[in-house]
Amino acid sequence: MRTIKNRTATALGVLALGATSFTGVALAGSAQAADRDGKCDSGEFCYNFNSDLKGSWSDFKSSVGDYGTNAKTCYEFKGAGAGKSKCIKNEAGGYWNNTSKSVTVYFNSGYAGESVTLKPGAKGKLPAAVYNNNASHKIGGSTTPPSNGKKAMSQALYEGGGGTLTAAFDGYKNTPGRHEGIDFAKGFGSKVKSLVDGTVINADDDPNGLGTLAIYMPKEDKTVIYLHANTTVKKDAKVKRGDVIATEANRQGGATHTHVEMRPGKHTLASKSVNDPTLDNPDPTSFWNAQGYVEK
């Protein structure tokens, strides 16, 4: 990977070559030299250290497959403000696609892993899937973001993916009542991961119990509840999204599956669903979308 010093030297070399042989190349070299000045100019894709776009900027005119982590050679934040001189890899909170093309940001280097495609002219906080998890980007590499750049809950819920949605919110077909959550299934003993950050306020490890795991999110004042699982974390534990919190089971729930429910406020138990004609919970679609997921 070239450092800024090498980029400038290359551009000067092309200018010198253009002066003695073919002047057409000099303009291209000069344009490249104007890149990476910490200002988000027209035609550039830019990261900001902060999600509110008030930190240091890092600007690009072309695709980059690996931002690097070595302080001497990485692509860094160059503009004034918080984050200046830090390597941008896994550190960007905001963006501005100041180009006329879509830009796809990837979780992994080499244009691989989960990705989010950003529309021309769009700017703001990076979507959850690549927020502080950015390793490469491709300008004009994609036009339609898969699932709007969000990850399927059925895949994010299980270690190694492979889950299937079996019942949607309020989606009972053969059971009386109103379904207050979303059901997924992979198989008995499958490792279940937390979809959010929060604090465990209930961890039912009674083998004869429902298998309730409640994770409270104080900032959002919401609780995410998992049912029918064998919990592997304890009450008061702090968990992060992606942490294994349980194994899939069929405790008092018939077929093996995991029920995932969002409740506004702080709750240790799920809402009643079976034989209850009233929905206590709101449609969780906007909540899960804000967390970077789609309900599938």
Structure commentary:
With 296 residues, the chain is an alpha+beta fold. The chain has three domains: 1-34, no CATH class; 36-149, Sandwich (Gamma-B Crystallin, domain 1), CATH 2.60.20.10; 152-294, Glucose Permease (Domain IIA). The chain has helices spanning 4-20, 24-33, 153-156, 285-290; strands at 44-48, 57-60, 94-98, 103-108, 112-118, 123-125, 136-139, 151-152, 164-167, 182-185, 191-193, 198-203, 213-217, 222-227, 229-231, 238-239, 244-248, 258-264, 293-294. The strands form five sheets. A seven-stranded antiparallel sheet has the order 9-10-18-14-13-12-16. Strands 2-1-3-6 form a four-stranded antiparallel sheet, with no helix packed on it. A three-stranded antiparallel sheet has the order 5-4-7, with no helix packed on it. α1 (4-20) packs antiparallel against α2 (24-33). The radius of gyration is 24 Å and the shape is elongated. The two termini are 39 Å apart.
Give structural attributes:
single chain, 296 residues, alpha+beta, Gamma-B Crystallin, domain 1, 3 domains, seven-stranded antiparallel β-sheet, four-stranded antiparallel β-sheet, 4 helices, 12% helix, 28% strand
In short:
This protein has helices at residues 4-20, 24-33, 153-156, 285-290; strands spanning 44-48, 57-60, 94-98, 103-108, 112-118, 123-125, 136-139, 151-152, 164-167, 182-185, 191-193, 198-203, 213-217, 222-227, 229-231, 238-239, 244-248, 258-264, 293-294. By secondary structure, it is α+β, with helices and mostly antiparallel strands.
